Amino acid sequence: MRRARGLVVAVLLALGPPAAALNVALVVSGESQKKAAIERAGKDVKVLAFDPVRLGDPIEKGRFLAALQASDRVIAAADGEACGWLGREVEGVAVHCVTSYDARKILAFARAAGWTRIAAVHMTGYERVYARLSVLARARGIALVPVRLEGTRDLARALPKALKTAKAVWILGDPRLTQGAAFDYLVEATVARRVPLIAPDAALVGRGAFLAAESDPAALTRHAVDAANLAAGGAPTAAALTTAPGGRLVFNRVLARRWGVLVPGGTP
Amino acid sequence: MSLLRRTTAAVLLAAVLAPAARAKVAFTGYGHLLMPVDTHFKIRGPSAPLGGLPEGNLISKGFRVDAVGLFATTKVSEDVEFLMDLTFRNIGNTVGQTRIQYAYLDAALPWGDLKMQAGRVNLPFNYYNTRRFYPFQRVELSAPVFVNGILGLPIADAGAVLSRRFELDGGWGVDARAYAVNGYGSLSGSTASLRSPSLPGGLGLAGNLGASNNNKDVAVGAQVAANRAGIGEVGASYYRGAWDREGRRVLQLAGAHALWTPGEFDLLAEYLHLHAGGDEGMAQSLGSTSWVTHGVFLTAAHPLFSVGGREVAGWGHFENYHSRRAGGGPGREVLRSYSGGATLAVNDNVTLKAEALYLFYAVPTTSKAIILDGRLIQAAAVITF
Question: Is A118 helix (H, G, I), strand (E, B) or coil?
C-alpha cells in the first residue's frame, strides 16, 4: 500500500504544476549539439534534436511533433532541411529559424563584387535582423533595401520592382521563403535577370542560390540557445535573431562561371 | 485491488487532472500494402485440426491491404505523454481486425531518472517486439514466422513498465526494464489448454492476451540490454506468469538478442526459450503437458547498389524452432524458414520491398502430423505519413 502511494505521488509530481506562460522548444541538429544546448538553456527551454532518420519512423515523428506543438514557440538552430521540415509539419506554433551566419563575410564579398545595392527580402518579424544587417552594410558602402512581406503572396508584387535596381537579392531567412514555390520563384526571377541570390542556408546553393554562408554549428547552437532563453523570458523572438561569426562562404560555381563572377577557389 | 491496478489508476487520474490546454494531438501513421505474387503451399494433415482447410496444394496470388495504422501522440504535461496505435488489419470490403496495439501513458518519474509506461504497453521482450515490429522499422518484408505467427507480435498487454538507463563510459549505456502485466491466459474456450495443434488460431499464443486477467496472478518480467550507437545492442529478457484460471500452470519465456550495426551492416539475432507447464492442448502432440520450445532467428541486411541516388538494401533471414516435451521425447513441433529479398526507399515516405520465402512447419496430432511446406514470393509497399 505504501509503495502504491509512493508511485501515485511520484506520478503526480512528474505531471508537475501548470505550465509556465511561455514554453520554448529549441531544435538543434544532432545529439552533440543537443548536449551543448542543454548546458546553456534555461529551465523553460526544452531542447530537441532533429534527426531525419528517426523522424522517418511515424511513432518517433509523432512524439517529436507532440513535443513541439505543446510549446508556445519553436526556435530552430538547424540547417535548411530541418527548417523546411518544421515549416511544413508544425501547426499552430510559430517556428523561427535562427540565421547564425557571419554577415560580415557576405558583405565583404558583396563589396568586392560591386553589389552596392542589395534587396533584403524578409518576412514581417525579421525587422530587427534587417536593421542590424543594414547598419553593417552601410558601414561598407552598401545600401540594403528592405523588401518586407506580410505573406509569400506579396513576393510576386514586390520582387520585380526591387529587381529593377538591385545588384543582388538577400533572403534574410524564414522557412516560408526558403522552400516550395516561394523559393523557386526567387531563384527563377533572379537567375532570369542575372541577379545573384544570397540564401540563408548553404544547402540552398544546390537549389539555385548564388551564395550562402555556411554556419559554424557550435556558434549556431550558442546563438540559438541565447535566442530561446530570451524568447522564454517573453522577448519578441525576432529581437534575438541576429548574425554570429564563424563558418565559411559557399558559392554556386556554375552560375559564377556563366556570369563571370570571380569567387574564392575559382570556377569549374 | 492489486498494486498494478492502483498504479494504473493513479496514472490515469493524473492524466485527467493535468492541464488540458496544451493537449494538441499529433497524428501520424502508415500503410502496408501486400502483393503475394506466388503463394504455393502443400498442406497435409487430419481434417479436424485443419479446421476446414482442404488438404493438398494451396496456390494463390493477389493484392491486399495488410495493415493501416494511425498513431496518436499528445503531451499530457511537461514530462508525460499519451501514445496510442489504432491499427486496421486484413482490410477488404470490411476490416478484418481493428486493434489498439498499444495505448499508454509515458511518464518521466521525478526520482532516479526512472520512466514508467502504464496502460496497454509493448512488453520489452527481446528486440524485435518493440523496435522492428512495424514494417517501416525493418528492412525485411515479413516478420519472423515463429515469433510473429505463434508467439504473436507485438506482445502487448495491460500493465506497467518501469525503465531506467545507466550511462557508461565510451558511449555505452545499459537499459534496465521491469514490468508487470496481466499476462498470457488460456486458449479461448478452454481452461486447460495454452495451445493446441489446430488451424487456424489454436497454434498461436497471440489470442491468449485478453482484455483482463484470467487469474489472481500478475505476470512479471524484465530486460537488461547494453547498447552503443553505431555498434548495436546485446540483451536478455525474461517473462513469467501463470496462464490458467487457478494460477498454477506457469508459462516462462527467456530470450537473448544481439544487434550488430557496424557501418551500414545490420545483423539481428534473437534466441527464444519457452517453457509451458500443465498444457493439455499440446500434451498429445508433444507427449507431455510440460513442454519447451527452443529457437533462433537471424536477419542480416546491407545496401547492395543505388538506383537514382537511392540505395537498394538486400537482406537474408533464417529461423529454426523446435518444441518438444520437457526432458525430451519423440513428438516434435518443427518450424524452419529461409527468406531473402530487396528493399528500396523510393523517398522519405514510400518504401518498396520484394521477398522470396520458404517455410516448413510440422506438428504431430493424435492421428497424423499437420505439415505445411511451401514457398511465398511477394512484394509490398510501406507508406508512412
Answer: strand
